[in-house]
Amino acid sequence: MNTPNKGNNVVIGDNVTFGENVSIGHNVIIYDGTSIGDNVLIQDNAVIGKQPSRAKNSILPDVKKLPPAKIGSGCTIGTSSIIYANADLADDVFVADLATIRERVTIGEKTIVGRGVAVENDCKVGTKCKLETNCYITAYSELGDYVFVAPGVVTTNDNYMARSAERYDKFKGITIKDGGRIGANTTTLPGIVIEEDGAVGAGSIVTKDVKKEELVVGTPAKAIRKVPENQLLRNQ
User: Fold this and answer.
1) Could you tell me which residues are beta bridge partners of residue 17?
2) What class is the 132-236 domain?
């Protein structure tokens, strides 16, 4: 096993594997079995491979132990960020300070997870996405490639707002297909689908699906025009 360059008060569990040229800051915890690729920077106070805790009244399944986390080559894990067990980060993912990436989440190559972003359990995020400061990606969401989520965006997955057992098999997060974009401080209702290159203006509340290459704005969000040709993903 390669030996990382590490700071003070670092705790490394059993069977953790490191690639070449890994640098670890102070007060970092890396849990058992975590796999870390080459040229990875882990900054102070980060926690990697944490097993989730389950509240007594949680609707999540009671899983005794999840598989270890995987961190690809070229990743940066920011100060005080938390990467849970069974998270899988591809190569060159950038995780900024104070971000949280939960269990059973996959993050594609070269995606940026901004400061304070929360990606909840059971999400899939594609390649070269940008999740900006303090946005919230709710559980059971799927984001394609080249997706942009602006600061302060809130996504939701529960139409019953935590009441009645009827909701248990109906949780559904957001689906944003390749090139979809959401403006700052937008809120999306559960199960919304934003088709390829769909765009949502800042401050909107999205109550209906957004069609391919359509721009929607307002409360509730309504289509106002097509996305300009020079803004479409295929023309970049």
Assistant:
1) 35
2) mainly beta
Pinpoint the residues of the chain covered by CATH 2.160.10.10: 1-52+62-116, 132-236
Question: CB-hemisphere CA count at 13 Å for 122?
Answer: 9
Interval 44-48 mean pLDDT: 98
Within 10 angstroms of residue 194's Cβ, the number of other Cβ atoms is 27
Closest by CA position to 203, among listed 189, 193, 217: 217
Position 60 scores a pLDDT of 65
Separation in Å, CA 200 to CA 97, 144, 210: 26, 16, 8
3-state class of 223 per DSSP?
Answer: strand
- Cα–Cα nearest to 72, from 56, 87, 91: 91
Q: What is the dihedral of CA 128, 134, 139, 142, to 10 degrees?
A: -20
Encoding tokens for residue 144? 């394609």
CA separation for the pair 68, 171 (Å, rounded): 26
Q: What is the pTM of this model?
A: 0.94
Q: Would you state the pLDDT for residue 167? A: 82
- The pLDDT of residue 191 is 97
What is the overall mean pLDDT for the chain? 95
pLDDT(1) > 70 = no
Determine which helix (DSSP H) or strand (DSSP E) holds 6, and give its type and residue range.
strand 5-6
| Radius of gyration from C-alpha coordinates of the chain | 19
77: nearest Cα among 102, 122, 47: 47
